[in-house]
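Data card: per-record layout.
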Amino acid sequence: MTDIRLEERFVSFQTDLFNWASWVYGLVTGKGALAVLEGFEGGPNEMEEERRKRVAAKQFPVLGEEMLGAVVGKCWRGEYASSMEAVDELKAFLEQMGFQCEENGDLVNFDNAPYEYLKVFNNPYLKLDA
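The structure for this 130-residue chain is written out next.
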């Protein structure tokens, strides 16, 4: 397990995974990418300090398993040894949910994905026609 350094100034696969996980959290919940600050009620001057404390303590919101919760959590906590390890777990999750992945990673017939699955996302801004 690798620790994500708050002072890290260079992009690494772990900073990429951390940011990707925050994006996924925002997508499925509609709460934005600053997931680590969920529930924070202080002013803007205290935000960065609170963010640093929560990241250092690895205090992150919990997502349900059906919303990639396990993968998102491991990305936030820096528990992947490589980006490919995260990709492999993401593919396994998608296959478990009934999707098929091609060799190149593309999803087969994703445009025809069942809306029932997408409805598990708790995002009020995600509009589904079905």
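Known properties of this structure: The mean pLDDT is 78. Residues 5 and 22 are 16 Å apart (CA to CA).

See the next section for split statistics.
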